[in-house]
Amino acid sequence: MSTIGTIGLHKLSPRLLFVFMFFLVSVHASAQNISVVDDEDTVVTLSEPATRIISLAPALTELLFSIDAGNRIEGVVEFSDFPPAALTIPIIGRHDRLDMERIIEIDPDLILAWVTGNPRGSVARLKEMGYTVFMAETQALEDIPSLIEKLGRLTAEDNKAQDVANDFRNQYQSLQSVYGSRPILSTFYQIWNAPLISVGGDELINDIIELCGGRNIFADIQQKAPKVSEEAVLNRNPEIIVASGADDQRPAWLDDWKEWNGLTAVAQESLFFVPPDLVMRPTLRALQGAEMLCEQIDSAR
Q1: How far apart are CA 201 and CA 215, in angstroms?
Q2: What pLDDT, in 10s, does the model give residues 175-214?
């Protein structure tokens, strides 16, 4: 039996009793803390589940709703438009220009930030002001389930998040098993036409292309959304051209490539469209976009 168990708490001196009780309270508080490691390898700790969240990226807003934590969000950036309920949340700026005064007014207990999408200076200032900031960055489909689980931990929606993450992994593995061994086709992904913008190798869309058995013709470029030339596209002569555009409508400029009869993609009538939100946002809907793109690439084989 321990010494304390032997002599009883009532026999301790007041000073020792205070120290012992402080130790017990500290251990209890530590046990209640919630800690996760964000995508900058920083340990983010909350004393209790987040209830007043500001999301600085539309994708992060969408992921919170997917684990039933959308009711915790007090502020979002522009274009946070899915699910429709997100449109009712106050806007605190754009992803690249934050309204710091509005953020201070909301006084969040957790801020979800986007590593490569939010101004680093503004995010650093928020941290200096004492706000708890979780930094997120997903470059591949496989990163999404882990992020979902961490958001679940921060909001005490662990069970829901685990179910959603596992379902995502299962669907991802199913796509891998179907398309992983198909013949590889060179693919040009066009985000915009003027200027001509594509995707580099360090990007979610590149990962989706590879999942589907495609090869991004600009995978050798490390920029996420590099400007490329028409000549470069012609020289690399893709077998498939996929465009996204501004919304869920096929952009008219995709057909401009038909002027180049020598392009393999044009000769084979392999010009396709995928709604941008289905492949550019690292959310559950990325699997919908992946399935759509995989079917399109497969039809060109």
Answers
A1: 10
A2: 999 998 999 999 999 999 999 999 999 999 999 999 999 9
Phi, psi of 130 (to 5 degrees): 100, 5
Q: Report yes or no on 80 lying in a domain.
A: yes
The CATH number covering residue 133 comes to: 3.40.50.1980
Decide which of 165, 194, 217 is a domain's last residue.
Answer: 165
Which residue, 220, 208, 194, 221, is CA-closest to 290? 208
Q: Using CA atoms in the order 105, 111, 112, 118, what is the torsion angle rounded to 10 degrees? A: 60
> Does this model's pTM top 0.85?
yes
User: What own/partner pairs with CB < 8 Å and gap ≥ 24 does 200-205 have?
Assistant: 200/224, 200/225, 200/226, 202/139, 203/139, 204/138, 204/139, 204/140, 204/141, 204/279, 204/280, 204/282, 204/286, 205/279, 205/280
**Residue 286, SS3?**
helix
- 72 and 38 within one domain: yes
Supply the range of the domain harboring residue 187. 181-299
pLDDT per residue as tens digits for the range 109-126: 999 999 999 999 999 999
Could you tell me the pLDDT band of residue 246, with boundaries at 50, 70 and 90?
confident
Residues 123, 187, single domain; the answer is: no
